[in-house]
Write a structure and sequence with these properties.
The complex is a heterodimer of chains A (354) and B (400). Chain A is built from 18 helices and six strands. Chain A has 354 residues and is mostly helical. Chain A folds into three domains: 98 residues, no CATH class; 113 residues, Rossmann fold (3-Layer(aba) Sandwich), CATH 3.40.50; 121 residues, Arc Repressor Mutant, subunit A, CATH 1.10.10.10. Chain A has a three-stranded parallel beta sheet, covered by helices on one side. A three-stranded antiparallel beta sheet of chain A has the order 4-6-5. In chain A, helix 8 packs parallel to helix 11. With 400 residues, chain B is an alpha/beta fold. Chain B is built from 17 helices and eight strands. In chain B, helix 12 crosses helix 15. Chain B is flat, with a radius of gyration of 31 Å. Chain B starts with a helix and ends in a 13-residue tail after the last helix. The chains are: A mainly alpha (354), B alpha/beta (400). Chain B: It comes from Caenorhabditis auriculariae.
Amino acid sequence: MIQEYAGIALESLDDEIVGLDEQERLINDLVAEFISSEKGQCCILEGKPGCGRQSLLDKILKAYDIELRIINVGQLAVDGSIQETLAKEEDGGSWKKTTRLPWLIFLSVTPQDFLEHMEKCGSSRMPRIRIVFENDFDFEEYRQAFKSLMAPRETEAASSPEYQEFLESLRPEKWLRSLHETYDLCVLKQVVAIILQRIVDCEPEDFCKEEVESAIRDAVEFASPDYEPKLKLLEDLSLRQQCVFLCAHRLLRNRPAESATTVAQITYRYIFLEYKKLVNTFYRALAVSSDSWIFREIDHLVEIGLLRADRFSNVTNMSFRKVNLGVDPLRIEKFAQTLKLPTAIADFFTSTRT
Amino acid sequence: MDFQKRKTLLSLLFNNSRSFSHVNCYGESSAGRSLSISNIIAKNDYGWHYAFADLLYADGSMKLLLKSLSNEIGVKCKGENVMEFWYAVREDYHWPSTSTKKMIIFLDNAQAVVNFPTYAISYFLKSCKDVCGLQIRFVTSAPAPWICYQANSPIGSLPVREFHFRPPCAEACINLIREFEPDISEKFVRYCIDVSFIHSRAPNTLLRIVRNAFASYEESGKGAGVLDFHRMGSCLTSSSHELIGVETKFQSNEDDLISEAFESMPIAMRFLLVASFCASNNASSSDKRFFVKHHGKEKRSEAREMKNDLARQLKAFEPKPANCQRVFFIYKTFCSQFAENDFDKIDLKCVLASVASMGLVTISGPLEAPRVRCLISAECASKIAGSLKIQLRDYLEYTV
């Protein structure tokens, strides 16, 4: 039953807009005035990418049964006849008859200081009507927005007391504060979509409170700035590849860089020598017949992003290619403890380097 | 892939929310990632249409990408106008009903996205939301998470929704191989997998290892019966050596290839290579000691050797660029000491250009004073010097 309401909420989440009531009122007044007076108008919408400018426009114009036509500025630059094409689309007849029809134009811009980057002849022609999509919310408004997104208005989920009780049992005031300090409402909408998708995805017999809390914890971890998915690939590698990566990490974690503008790097050959040290001393089963096999493994680690190759040097001999770590060394040390390495190999990597 | 993981992937790919406009499936290529995902998308019964494109084939060209997508979907699109492409998809594609228009675009080899201009590919992935009545979902298949391919990820936005495609574990590999090869006994397969799994986790590679090991085991077998573990081990080692490089007692023929390659070189080219190797790996202050006073006969005391060992550990051992004139002078010293004939009439710059075009040295710097860096390894240099009867170790400051 809770999952059905979550499914309804997930379907309705696309049309739900929170936190933009003032902007909605301003645009609604503008569109109503345009329709009633048949007079052309232009307006600037400022905001960050993903703040909901187009979604709000779509929602308002859908109420008036008007389709929003989107034109990219680059398209205007390369296509000189775009105005004629648009006029023909509207009327279906000749071009001259439609030049006197009124137009309602919304200029959607991203940076806050775009007027300063324009030339003077352009900025003097900009419309004076400007709607800014930037709001500051306190935590209580953020929590109300979360409840509105989890149970969108005019749906069965919003009017169900069982679902409302379920939302109260999530206790968002405990874990929502970290999201509030980092992100705004557009990211909250995505996090809510992830949580709802996990709830809908769960099997009905396995649905319980711990599962929902696990979904919330995963969503908050996914949204946190220190989310690092590359280290999960380390579990998929074979033992040889894991040892090659840990040898590179062992060499690079305390190595100073050559200058202030570069990072610490190591050549393929030094990684192979470290690997030979591990094989000869600690774990004989990992022995390889040639160093080219280890070089191949280092190339594979570069391909999946765990190591980062130095692409500026033109080196044809593989021994002298350089790599550096693609992941933070402290995170690697924390993650390496969760790997199920043999005891001898773990002893080699935890021992201090002489 | 187990049932729960598959259900998670299906729910991630085929839900009706617009928040998941881009799903990245990452993981090992050897686990059959792209093939499995394309099969799941192509044979779905959730009402989503399917289109395939290869970013590696497009090779950084937005025009090629839109052209291949247009041919795949069956619409006509001119040039590289992304918005016109979306409108053509909405109007001209043969949708079965007008109620829902949902399409999944599967972009294979998504690691090639770094070849595209950043603004073009980000506009392509985001502009599908601008079309009313059309819902597009991009599914990319890449070895690494999407954050590795974003040059400048915007601050304050979530990363791309991702699915981790895991390779099969050892038990699943055993079951897969026994499905393909039912004649091989389970004990044999389990023994091979247990030994080889620490080197490679690719099911195809493991299948070939098991096949080759079983073929050589039956070939050398005296009769059916109890499994001989000693013979199994030797057969497995010989088959693993070719595929995953496991060490064997047999000598590999790589050294023979190197010897044959360098013995066919002219003698002047060999002298020049050895000279460039000495110039790249020695400090210029040691030239007088090696090539003027002692000529390789310098006595090495134990204290100096220990000091050199300490210095070698701190040094990053790699070839350094050396002056071209220095290389030529070392070459002349070697010729006067070890060559039987006179090489004074040879144009050394032509020989140096030939060696550089073969990739054995790199030449950098201005044309008036080029700098030479030798890229051959110490083993190759020792072999070349041995063919010229030069004791290369005596001319190196730090022996390797």
